[in-house]
Design a protein that fits this description.
- With 570 residues, the protein is mostly helical.
- Helix content is 92%, strand content 0%.
- The protein contains seven helices and no strands.
- The chain is flat, with a radius of gyration of 64 Å.
């Protein structure tokens, strides 16, 4: 394992241990906080219940003491006696409440004893409430029972007080244990932090001892031995870690450096002997360079011409694109105006459809009401038909009664004729009865005729009402269909309006894009002009540079010839 791997492993292990301990500390703090909260809630709950229980016990004892005081008073009247009886009843009710609370509470050391005493008190109070003798007769027995129950309640109050004190003490002990555990854990955290800090300090000193100090020693040896050809960085070059790799690399680099220095010195020595050859080679190179420069300059001039032609073509194409973008911009503006007109028309159609839809809904409501009214009218016509049928039945009875009355009048007339003078007055009455029966029969016949006419008209009206009801129902269905269609049309119109709005937005964006294209095209045209100008400028500079290079080469040739003459002189 290398030195860096060792340091990395130690650092990671230290950080992991610290992180684990910090997580444990956070978890422990959360657990202790939850325990503290639960203990506090339990203490508050039990304290409240015990307080209520103790308060009820005190009220119970106070009621019994009042009863005892009342019974011990020799001058107690009947009202005082009644108050004593009422106090006993109240005490029994409190006893019931306390019994329920004692069953619910689980904090008493002797819970069964408390419940047993409350049950005995309940039985004793029940005996007093059902006693046949009044308190003034059995006062001695009542006083004994009441004193006994008051003493029991005093014992219960003492138990409640002791229990409350014990709970408070237990809660305080638990809280003290929690805080003590928190203190221990805090101390442990501080110890772990101190250990982590010490580990980091030790890691720093170990890094300095195993890495920094050897590097300083290596630098010191290089300062003393840098002029030697072979250097040794012992004992560091024998190590197998990063320091050893660094030392061996430095030794190798120093060796290569010394070799390169020797090569440079040797090259400088040989340079003097090869100067004449270099001049000859320089002349040849100058000729080749002149040829190559002329060739490259010609190529560059051709490229500039092509660039100039392309720039001219780009200018013409940019102008055409600018014209096309202007035409497209005009067309998109016309399209935008047309779409805006369509949007306005669809808005008007949407408004009209909304009005028609509102009127159709009102018409549908009216047809619903008409159908309801027609049903009511049909029911009333049916009732009228039944009434006319009952009247017809009654008229049949009237016809029968009139016929029988006429027969009776005829018989009375016959009997009156037989009676002679004695039956004349009766004959007159019989005649009147016969006339009245005839009139009754005629009136019944007329009524029957009218009833038949009414029944016929009622039946016809009923058929017409049924027809009207059916027609209104069909109208209602048609209006429902129209309403559904208009609703669909309204939704479709809204969608058309929304789509038209989106189309307007898209056309606006297209118009903006075309405008940007026009701007870009104009910019491209300007750039093309600049490119053409630059190409022309480059061509001019190339020509100038070609002449300057030829002049330089001529001067160089003259210098070489003069140098050759000097060499020949020697």
């Amino acid at each position: 394992m290398t030195l860096s791997q060792k340091f990395t492993a130690i650092t990671v292990m230290t950080l992991v241990i610290s992180l684990i301990f910090f997580l444990c500390d956070a978890w422990h703090s959360h657990v202790q906080e939850s325990k503290f909260k639960n203990l506090t809630d339990m203490y508050n709950e039990h304290t409240t219940l015990l307080y209520q229980f103790g308060q009820n016990a005190k009220d119970y004892q106070h009621s019994l003491n009042q009863v005892v005081t009342s019974l011990q008073n020799p001058s107690a009247d009947e009202e005082t006696t009644q108050r004593a009886v009422e106090a006993i009843r109240n005490a029994q009710q409190l006893n019931h409440v306390m019994l329920e609370q004692a069953v619910a509470l689980n904090v008493f050391a002797d819970k069964n004893g408390v419940i047993r005493r409350l049950q005995e008190s309940d039985k004793a109070l029940a005996t007093l409430n059902t006693a046949t003798q009044p308190p003034e007769v059995g006062a001695g027995q009542w006083l004994d029972i009441l004193r006994t129950q008051s003493g029991n309640m005093g014992d219960i109050i003492s138990i409640v007080t002791d229990t409350s004190t014990k709970i408070h003490s237990n809660i305080n002990d638990a809280i003290a244990n929690i805080f003590q555990a928190e203190t221990y854990f805090t101390k442990a955290t501080i110890a772990v932090l101190a250990a982590t800090l010490l580990a980091l300090i030790a890691l720093f000193y170990a890094a300095r001892r195993h890495a920094i100090t050897p590097i300083e020693k290596i630098i010191e040896q290089l300062d003393h031995n840098h002029s030697e050809r072979d250097i040794h960085l012992s004992p560091y070059d024998a190590r197998q870690d990063e320091i050893g790799i660094l030392a061996r690399a430095i030794v190798t680099f120093h060796k290569h450096y010394m070799d390169a220095t020797d090569a440079v010195i040797k090259a400088k020595e040989e340079e003097t002997h090869t100067e004449t050859n270099k001049r000859i080679v320089a002349i040849q190179l100058e000729d080749a360079l002149e040829f190559e420069i002329n060739k490259q300059v010609g190529t560059l001039q051709e490229a500039c011409k092509v660039l100039n032609n392309n720039a001219t073509l780009l200018q013409s194409q940019s102008a055409q694109i600018a014209d096309s973008s202007s035409d497209a911009k005009m067309l998109t503006r016309e399209m935008q105006d047309a779409v805006m007109a369509i949007k306005a028309s669809t808005d008007n159609i949407s408004s009209t459809i909304g009005v028609v839809l509102h009127d159709t809904r009102q018409s549908t409501d009216i047809t619903h009401k008409a159908v309801s009214e027609s049903h009511v009218l049909r029911d009333r016509m049916n009732v009228l038909t039944e009434a006319t049928q009952q009247i017809s039945s009654s008229l049949t009875v009237i016809h029968k009664i009139a016929a029988q009355t006429r027969m009776l009048a005829l018989n009375a007339t016959i009997e009156a004729a037989r009676a002679g003078d004695f039956g004349r007055s009766f004959a007159v009455v019989a005649q009147e009865v016969r006339v009245l029966s005839g009139q009754t029969e005629k009136a019944a016949y007329d009524i029957s005729t009218h009833i038949q006419n009414i029944q016929g008209q009622t039946g016809q009206a009923l058929e017409e009402v049924k027809t009207i009801t059916d027609v209104i129902a069909e109208i209602d269905k048609a209006l429902e269909h129209v309403l559904s269609s208009m609703t669909i049309q309204e939704n479709s119109t809204h969608e058309i309006v929304e789509n038209t709005g989106r189309a307007v937005e898209c056309i606006t964006e297209v118009t903006g894009s075309i405008a940007k294209i026009g701007d870009s095209t104009r910019s491209a045209e300007k750039e093309a002009n600049e490119v053409a100008n630059s190409a022309q400028t480059v061509t001019t500079h190339v020509d100038t540079m070609r002449g300057a290079i030829q002049q330089v080469l001529q001067n160089q040739n003259k210098s070489v010839e003069e140098s050759s003459g000097d060499v020949d002189l020697f």
